[in-house]
What we know:
Helix content is about 50%, strand content about 15%.
Amino acid sequence: MKTHITCLYIKYFTWYFNENRGVISAMITGKEYIERIDQLKSEVWEAGKKVDEPLSKHPAFKGAIKSQSELYDLQNQPELRSIMVHEDKETSLEIGTSYMVPRTKGDLEKRRKMVQVWARHSAGLMGRSPDYMNTVLASFVSSVSLLDHQPNCFPDHLLKFYKYAVENDLSFTHTFISPQNNRSSLACLDEDITNARVVKRLEEGIVIKGAKLLATQGGMTDEIIVFSAPGIQDSSHAFAVSIPSNSPGVKFICRKSFAGSEVPFDSPLSSKFEEMDSMVIFDNVLVPWERVFFYDNIKAAHDFYLKGNFVPLTLHQIVSRQVIKTEFILGIAQMIVDTINISEYQHVQSKVAEIIKGLEASKALLLASEHQAAINKDGVMLPDRIPLYIAVNLFQETYPRFTEIVQLLGASGMVLVPEQSQFHSAIGDQLDHYLQGYEVKGAERVQLFSLASDLCMSAFGTRQTLYERFFFGDPIRLSQHIYSSYSKEGPVSFSKEFLSEKS
Ligand SMILES: Cc1cc2nc3c(=O)[nH]c(=O)nc-3n(C[C@H](O)[C@H](O)[C@H](O)COP(=O)(O)OP(=O)(O)OC[C@H]3O[C@@H](n4cnc5c(N)ncnc54)[C@H](O)[C@@H]3O)c2cc1C
């Protein structure tokens, strides 16, 4: 009932603002998001069964779906308008800032603030909050000129689809990589038996068969974008499309659920932000031509990923979120220090300082990317990709260390976390006494450690660590890319000159 009244309240304010400004809002509410996902009835397989109940009621999905719906409601809050809403001059529509293609440095700043409003709601733990994929789509559409006059490329389809997505505030999952069956350097010489490929080119569209990894939020979104990562050898694997999640033949095969107990005290994070990951099987899926952006074109797949705006714009979203996540983990670490009163120890101070250094480095690199932003030939304001690459590659190393630091500071407290029901039982008073911390009762101390444990030790928390390590690609190859793409000529000639002057 309370939720219903909140929805009406938000709707009223949205209507009021639109009426008074003559602008139509394209943004949906949380309720609309949930209704759409439930109506889709996409084919989702979980724990050996095809899900046949509404996804928003299913234990493996309901926490994340509810959290995601709250993000949509935030977008409609009048006091956040200047950050979350963008007036599209071409269509006179009000759209979510996450779909906006940045044209000025001010736009980049607005994008950062928008990402951070949403990230604060989940403490940065929803890697695939809608702003991630909306940013990806904005990066694709702003790179559309790469498809001009190329074989089997349809820039007009992409432009039209972007407009449709924005006008309906669509949500997306995506799959970019091939299944992990043979990663040897010679694997490309074998016939790839699992990777999704175009098997037919028909009058109505292309037909895709095979599998792709790894759709986080698979089934929880309106659409799925399927895009080939660079490095493909066979042109049938090189395509980019977007299709509704319930397209016939699309199956989302979920991993084991990491959703925790529904009692927030016991599973404060895994009850709300478990996003689920899935493999996607394409069982002869027909993709109508208007949803095909390119196919049978290895160069387009390569250029779109590496020469387009995907990397700088998506990384800008990612690092903005990671800053919030680092603030959160710093807060937890310091609360542990205070709760068991260990701040006098030098090693404790230096461990917390490691998180502070990580936080400030990420913030500085993010701002540097905006400061060094430049307009490209298509009039898109692109943040400098180098500081962002450095920030994301650093985070792949520092985030696992941050979770280790929380474990090192929390020690036995990380496991001695009785459920809330124990505090409400006949022995509650004793637990409050024997589990008390420094100037706090047992229940308060355990609530904090339960949060820390969910973040750093639960299946959900461990998946968070794996996510930050890999979701933007393998850290090893990312650092190789930084090495090979970074211009080292200046430093080398400086050192050479120095050497010749001194010898
Ligand atoms: C939690 C999580 C969520 C994700 N969500 C999504 C999503 O929503 N959508 C999506 O498309 N993808 C997603 N991904 C996939 C992500 O993009 C990949 O994990 C990442 O690109 C690495 O690929 P891989 O997992 O296949 O690892 P692999 O490439 O198989 O690497 C495995 C190991 O082999 C080594 N290795 C393999 N090949 C080489 C090489 N050529 N040179 C050197 N070393 C090599 C790697 O260093 C690594 O140690 C997600 C991943 C995770 C973990």
